Amino acid sequence: MSNTAPESRVPRGVRGGAGAWLRRAGGAAGQGRVGVRVFFVGGLISYRALFGWLSPWVFIPSLLVAPVFQILLFVYIGRSAALESDEFYVIGNGLQYASIPCVFAMTNIIAGERFQQTLGSILITPAPRLPLFVGRALPVVLNGFFVAAFGLVVGGLIVGIDVPASAYGPLALVTAVSALSCTGLGLLSAGLGLIVRETAVLSNVIFGILLVCTGANVPLDALPGWLSTAAQGLPFTHGIEAARLLADGAAFGEVARLVGSEGLIGIVYATAGYLLIRVLELHSRKHATLERA
Amino acid sequence: MLRLLWVGWVMHMKMLTRSAFNFWLGIVYPLFFATAAFFMFQSGDDPKPLLYASLGAAVMGIWGATSTAAGAALARERWTGTLELLVTAPAHFALILLPVTIAMATIGIYSMISTLVWGRLVFGIELEVGDPLAFVLAVPATVVSIGALGFLLAVAFVRFRQAWALGNMLEYPVWLVSGFLVPLTLFPDWVRPISWALAPTWGISAIRGAALGGSPYGDIALALSLGAGYTLAGILLLERALRTARVKASLSLS
User: Fold this and answer.
1) Is residue A70 classed as helix, strand or coil in its secondary structure?
2) Which residues of B touch A226 (CB under 8 A)?
3) pLDDT band at B151 (very low <50, low <70, confident <90, very high)
4) How many domains does chain B have?
5) What is the pLDDT of residue A284?
6) Which ipTM did the prediction report?
């Protein structure tokens, strides 16, 4: 049987040596261009799609009003329990609420495609998977950052917490890193979406775990030992601690390690999520289970 | 009429208990808030607020199960293409919608039971009901009045395509100002009239009164009266909304 691969049609004289190297380099550059295009164009389309369904009638009540009331709920519970300051709950809940846009939107990159019956079409494309999924994560991070920042600012103004102006910049950075970290967890949740049908329940459970375990409302030393140890591996735990220290006047250098840990946790989750998606994608091809979850 | 209400309630209870989203999430989701509140109150020295919070957290699930679902009740019928059929049926549409929202509130009883069991097993919160008869009356009164509030919500949002988001938005505010976890005395004075106008405030007060001692029967009567008021307001609003929808052909919002 003849070899019909493109390489077999290359004249013998130009095989190997500098010609082959140039072709391979050109191919790699082409692949890189495709990856960059998928990352940005895919991310942009995903962003537009996100706000296509996320109309103001959904966005304002769910992502702007609700976090403020979650902050107020826990501020008042905190006052009733006489446990921590208002600032503790504003920062904890303001950041933690980013899990709603981050986890739900990321999980929907799989569940939403399945619902619209486009998941199969996406997974048979030759598009490189890394930019395909990471590109879709970018608007989610930005949205999560905005929602958390809004909650922090408005919740802080309503309750009347005092944060030094020098902390605004570092707080914004911590908020962005926390949103990034939670989006990593969202990518893992998206992977689970290939085998779990009730992804909305899954996302809500993740939200609940983050509500209880990250120190957003319950100080870590008030949790059982095993739970506070487990919390060290969750998004927001280090980000919330760093934000509270910054609001209390700490310099960024003092919290850099916490911010680094927060970012690292996000990268670990994102990597695990990406690998899970790849493994389950291959599994679904082999066993024809893509639509079965 | 009673048969229609009963059959509607039974049908929707069956459907809701078979929905993983409504059933499991209805149980698990409020449990996270209860757990956070239990840890917070447990860290304090006085154990009394823990018992107070335990009952409040248990009832939170009833409103949690109702608010978003009631907001989406009409949109769901719209999606499935049954809204027009129900509106044109000989029975008044209110008699069809009211048992739906009461069934949603009833599902919250699962959450209530699971929260009380969770509090007992994990946090050692022992609940001794002082007046069992009042407790048995207070729970259904709370469910019915919250279901009636859900009915009003469903009707009020009939013109909004994304009504579930508005219902979802009201989950926290009602948890907050109804005094589920926080005594009303902690709020600014201007919040009190809002709390008084909400049936869940009187429902949880009745349940607490029955369990911990108080005047539950007056609170039960107030919760039911407000529930009746919501139902009446809902029917009037519904009449108006349906008349407009017929004139403008806008029921499907398409």
Assistant:
1) helix
2) none
3) very high
4) 1
5) 85
6) 0.91
Q: Is residue B254 part of a domain?
A: no
Taking an 8 Å cut-off on Cβ atoms, the answer to whether A65 and B169 are in contact is yes
Check CB contact under 8 Å for A200 and B21: yes
Domain span at residue B111 reads 2-248
| Average pLDDT across chain A, whole number | 86
Number of domain units in chain A? 1
Of A43-57, B2-16, B31-45, B147-161, the poorest mean pLDDT is in A43-57
Distant-in-sequence, close-in-space partners of B2: CB < 8 Å, separation ≥ 6: none
pLDDT on residue A166: 93
Give the pLDDT of residue A52.
62
Q: What is the mean pLDDT of residues A166-182?
A: 96
At A133, is the pLDDT very low, low, confident or very high (cuts 50, 70, 90)? confident
The alpha-helical segments, DSSP class H, found in chain A are: 17-53, 56-59, 66-81, 86-96, 99-115, 119-123, 129-159, 168-192, 199-213, 225-231, 237-247, 252-287
| Residues of B whose CB is below 8 A from A293 | none
Cβ burial of A252 (10 Å; 0-12, 13-18, 19+) is: middle
Give the best-scoring range by mean pLDDT among A126-130, A135-139, A150-154, B182-186: A150-154
The answer to whether residue A70 sits within a structural domain is: yes
- Residue A158 lies inside a defined structural domain of this protein: yes
What is the span of the domain harbouring residue A246?
A: 14-287
Nearest residue, CB atoms, B183 vs list A80, A211, A222: A80
CB-CB contact of B56 with B179 (8 Å):
yes
**Beta-carbon separation of B20 and A201 below 8 A:** yes
